[in-house]
Amino acid sequence: LNDIEVERFSDIALAFQPTHLFVDAADVDAARFGRAVSRGLPATTKIVSEHRADDTYPIVGAASIIAKVARDAAVAQLARRLERKLEMPLGSGYASDERTQLFLRAWHTKFGDLPEGTRRSWAPMRELLAPRAASLDEFVSG
What confidence tier does 134 reach under pLDDT thresholds 50, 70, 90? Predict the structure, then answer.
């Protein structure tokens, strides 16, 4: 995901050729994220890469709002398709949302996999997808 964000930030910067680029670092190492974004950009482009940059720089805060609105619209569109197949609400799509977790567990139970767009790297999803050891009762009764 970090690589995708670096690529998108770089693509946008190349299209607009800003003299200054402010980014909310998606990497635990903000400086490393800034260096990755800067690759391929003119050396004159000053990059400010910080965690929580949306709290410090109004332009980043505005971009964050736009991104959240676009994300919510994409999740709503995905929900319309997926909810018909399961007849239950998807929720917000965030890993911390109990309704989303219930939906994904129910989907996995019914279809044996996760629906499109699901981050398999989420701890609850890795746990759900992990091979399950058979219990002793299953061997005895089977």
Answer: low
